[in-house]
Design the sequence.
């Protein structure tokens, strides 16, 4: 049988074996998710080593993340691969490039101990450059320039290679700044992330002897997630493989999700051209997901015009359909998922208990994580956030919290230091030092130090005016806090300053918003016209939203310190939370995909974009998401999301409509609705079977309470079928005892009416709660 004497072939199917055995010459494995591309790649490494006797140090293997490299190394060490020798050249493009670059740094004018700049350093350099030329760095922000340069580097354009068509970039100065920046880096003996690859390519191109040395060294090259390589990475590979052409790339055009970062799916097509005679192997059997999950994903991705197309099949039993569930709002969604996770963990008659490690929540945008982190913390559910900082550790969140902390306790010197010059208030290091000295001299906190320094003219220039404003702001915010819900029981309520009229009944939520506005912090990011800034503003909105669930700023700050404490990465089973982008290549028995709403997923940016390119990339992202699931895939959306304290009604995302209906099961919460997605959109997300939603649940839900406060979701302009509208007139059209009809439950009599929810005694279905919009009057 297969595998005897060649254990790495154990269990592989014929096509996979072909891919493992074709060790010499160029090979492209083009196959859908879960078909064993990564596993095949590992088997090839074992085959190269054990069958052909290739030392592992002569095998170059490129993975997409450092984490993937680490995992692969671990798995290679055990059965069926049993590779004991270390894979010293397995890593990401960047980590491999650093290694090469250290040895030949002098060929690009660097020393071998060059430093790699982080984004902050990079921005500071660019900013200095921009300012030196007298250009307004508000209108032409450094971030924008950094993004531009990065794009050029991804395309492997050194300053002299940037085409003339880019001449207008960055106020006609882009190319010039780029060249200058590269010079600056060189004089600092530094390079940025993009340089790592670009310098290697430059070295290979200009020094055939060096290139030949590496071509001999890397006798075999393997690349995972090939669909996401950019031009510079492609050139890097092509140069190294040119001699022996022993290159094997595995990928899936349907999973190309880094177009926004310069990845080019076209590289897959170029492969056959650049490596003539390349063998192409397709794998069609999926080993990861059940048929319903696979069919749902395949059906969805068929909506993309630009794709190579492929068949996928599996021979495992059908399993469960993809579950689709609508929630009232984002908090309900988080609550429901928390409950569902716990219920899966407990198990039941039909399903064995599952470990938390086997469950993941994959979000489109990182700001979505907050609701889950909060909820899981509240119910004590262990979780980990993969790839990227947890919500409360993000820069903008920590800044904002710095302001809140100062407002609550002006004694908080750490917070003072953090925000005193953020946004920039014209206070240099010297000025900040002087404040510290003054505070120490008087034995007071920094706020008082600053006040005293100002009083005696110890700070001059434009910084003085701004610092004064900062101090006054803190005073006023603090007074407002004392007057508000944060007031200690026996506090003397001082009259608030006239600047904030009605401050007495200012809610802590509104106060927090004011703080971020008055401090200039929000406008700092608003003026920062870069993609990153947008995400930060989103996160700040999310922060304000989180505040609504607490009674006071103080209570909220306490909660956050708990979240932070929960940080330690102690062992034990945990639910994973990550973005869809970070989930590439991974698999979990249970996958939750929340937030499938227009504007969130697909993202607003992709919707606004001309043409379909953006939407197609989003659809691939959805495909990646669904295909992470092995047994259970649960897609959800919420009808309402609070954005900056205001309700916004959401429409289920278009991808929901595109899922093939026969593979999807709508989970409709009990008693609250009729049929159809529109109905599901109104639900409270309780299990259909257990019928747990009581009226008390409904009325206690934050969504409902909002409604009572007349903050109904704004009506959406389009497609009323799939959105909620609360119509007072429609309500008054019904009377107690009236006979009504609902699509799902049939005929019934109204027993009670509360707001827009009716309790109806259905003739067949029994007593249910339904929204008024989903019943029509019926003849008695
Ligand atoms: P993705 O496109 O998501 O990266 P992939 O094509 O790389 O997916 P793998 O992760 O290699 O797929 O494999 C998916 C799952 O199927 C893994 O759990 C793997 O161990 C399993 N698998 C792959 N091939 C076989 C096989 N021949 N027999 C049994 N299980 C297999
Ligand atoms: Mg893979």
Sequence:
């Amino acid at each position: 049988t297969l595998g005897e004497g060649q254990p790495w072939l154990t269990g592989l199917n014929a096509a996979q074996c072909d891919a493992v055995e074709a060790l010499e010459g160029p090979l492209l494995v083009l196959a859908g998710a879960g078909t064993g591309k990564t596993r095949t790649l590992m088997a090839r490494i074992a085959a190269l080593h054990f069958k052909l006797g290739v030392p592992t140090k002569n095998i170059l293997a490129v993975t997409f993340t450092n984490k993937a490299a680490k995992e692969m190394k671990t798995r290679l060490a055990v059965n069926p691969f049993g590779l004991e020798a270390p894979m010293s050249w397995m890593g990401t493009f960047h980590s491999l490039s650093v290694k090469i670059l250290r040895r030949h740094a002098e060929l690009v004018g660097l020393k071998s101990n060059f430093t790699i700049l982080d984004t902050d350093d990079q921005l500071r350099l660019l900013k200095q450059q921009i300012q030196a030329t007298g250009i307004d760095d508000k209108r032409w922000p450094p971030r924008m320039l950094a993004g531009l340069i990065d794009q050029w580097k991804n395309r492997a354009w050194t300053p002299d290679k940037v085409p003339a068509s880019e001449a207008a970039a960055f106020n006609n100065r882009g190319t010039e700044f780029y060249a200058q920046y590269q010079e600056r880096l060189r004089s600092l003996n530094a390079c940025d992330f993009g340089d790592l690859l670009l310098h290697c390519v430059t070295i290979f191109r200009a020094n055939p002897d060096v290139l030949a040395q590496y071509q001999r060294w890397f006798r075999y090259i393997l690349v995972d997630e090939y669909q996401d390589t950019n031009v510079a990475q492609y050139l890097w590979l092509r140069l190294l493989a040119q001699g022996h052409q022993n290159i094997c790339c595995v990928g899936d055009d349907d999973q190309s999700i880094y177009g926004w970062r310069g990845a080019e799916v076209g590289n897959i097509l170029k492969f056959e051209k650049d490596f003539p005679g390349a063998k192409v192997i397709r794998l069609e059997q999926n080993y990861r997901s059940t048929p319903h999950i696979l069919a749902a994903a395949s059906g969805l991705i068929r909506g993309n015009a630009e794709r190579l197309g492929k068949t996928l099949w599996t021979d495992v039993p059908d399993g469960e359909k993809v579950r689709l569930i609508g929630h009232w709002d984002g908090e309900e969604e988080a609550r429901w998922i928390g409950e569902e996770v716990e219920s899966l963990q407990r198990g039941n008659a039909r399903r064995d208990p599952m470990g938390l490690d086997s469950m993941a929540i994959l979000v489109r945008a990182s700001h979505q994580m907050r609701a889950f982190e909060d909820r899981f913390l509240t119910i004590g559910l262990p979780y980990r956030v993969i790839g990227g900082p947890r919500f409360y550790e993000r820069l903008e969140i920590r800044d904002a919290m710095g302001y809140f902390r100062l407002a609550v306790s002006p004694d908080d010197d750490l917070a003072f230091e953090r925000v005193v010059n953020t946004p920039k208030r014209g206070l240099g290091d010297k000025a900040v030092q002087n404040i510290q000295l003054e505070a120490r001299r008087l034995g007071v906190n920094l706020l008082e130090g600053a006040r005293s320094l100002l009083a005696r003219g110890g700070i001059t220039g434009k910084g003085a005016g701004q610092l004064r404003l900062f101090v006054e702001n803190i005073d006023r915010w603090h007074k407002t806090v004392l007057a508000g819900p944060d007031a200690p029981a026996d506090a003397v309520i001082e009259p608030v300053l006239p600047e904030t009229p009605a401050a007495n009944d200012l809610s802590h939520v509104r106060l927090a918003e004011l703080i971020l506005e008055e401090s200039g912090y929000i406008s700092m990011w608003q003026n920062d016209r870069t993609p990153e800034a947008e995400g930060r503003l989103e996160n700040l909105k999310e922060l304000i939203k989180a505040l609504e669930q607490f009674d006071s700023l103080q209570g909220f700050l306490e909660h956050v310190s708990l979240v932070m404490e929960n940080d330690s990465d102690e062992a034990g089973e945990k639910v994973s939370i990550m973005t869809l982008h970070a989930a590439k290549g991974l698999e979990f028995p249970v996958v939750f995909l929340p937030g499938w709403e227009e504007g969130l997923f697909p993202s607003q940016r992709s919707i606004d974009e001309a043409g379909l390119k953006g939407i197609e990339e989003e659809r691939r992202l959805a495909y990646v998401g669904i295909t992470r699931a092995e047994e259970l895939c649960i897609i959800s959306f919420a009808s309402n999301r609070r954005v900056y304290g205001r309700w916004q009604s959401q429409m289920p995302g278009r991808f929901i409509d595109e899922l093939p209906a026969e593979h999807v099961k709508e989970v409709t919460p009990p008693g609250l609705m009729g049929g159809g997605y529109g109905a599901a959109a109104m639900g409270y997300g309780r299990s259909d079977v257990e019928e747990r939603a009581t009226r008390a649940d409904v009325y206690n839900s934050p969504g409902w309470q909002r409604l009572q406060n007349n903050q109904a979701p704004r009506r959406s302009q389009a497609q009323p079928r799939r959105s909620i509208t609360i119509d007072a007139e429609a309500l008054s059209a019904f009377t107690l005892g009236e006979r009504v009809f609902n699509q799902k439950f049939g005929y019934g009599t109204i027993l009670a009416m509360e707001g827009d929810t009716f309790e109806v005694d259905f003739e067949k279905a029994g007593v249910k709660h339904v929204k008024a919009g989903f019943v029509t009057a019926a003849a008695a």
In short: Residues 11-13, 16, 31, 33-39, 252, 255, 287-288, 585, 587, 627 surround adenosine-5'-triphosphate (ligand 1) (CB under 6 Å). The chain has 30 helices and 21 strands. Residues 395-526 form a domain with the PCRA; domain 4 fold (CATH 1.10.486.10).
